[in-house]
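Task card 7
Instruction: Convert sequence to structure tokens.
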Amino acid sequence: MKGRFALLIFIQCLVVTAMFAAPIGQIELTERVSKLILKYYPEAEIVQDNGKFVAKYGTMIFTVHGRLKTGEILEKTKEVEGPNFKGFILSISVENGKYLGQAVIPQTLSRRYWNTYIDRPPTNDGKSYYVIDFSYGSSLDPKFMKAVLEVLSKTRISTK
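Output:
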């Protein structure tokens, strides 16, 4: 009787853990990226909170003018955290459903002071998609950048 009760508790723990676990692949992705970041930038700040992974190094606050899709530059400025010339910000999260945005993905967007690689690949189960944003300065270590982009590209499911 005690064995069955212990087994039941164990199964319930597994079910509850599975309900709150990250989607398939997200944990492995953030672990790989974290190891890579700490290899190149041991003093980088890495935070995982509420299903969102954010890593950053060498950032600062920029005062920027927003831009509309039409190309119009807004008069009012806003403060935005971004990478300095040797810095980066990488964020990874998961959204439910399929990506329905207008951006062609993956792509790299040129910002005034930095570039941002964006991708929205589906998760392995196809029920969600990753929201990947990797902003980096013009003098970020090219070996690090290549390694990060290689890991991020492995989130894409082959359609062959």
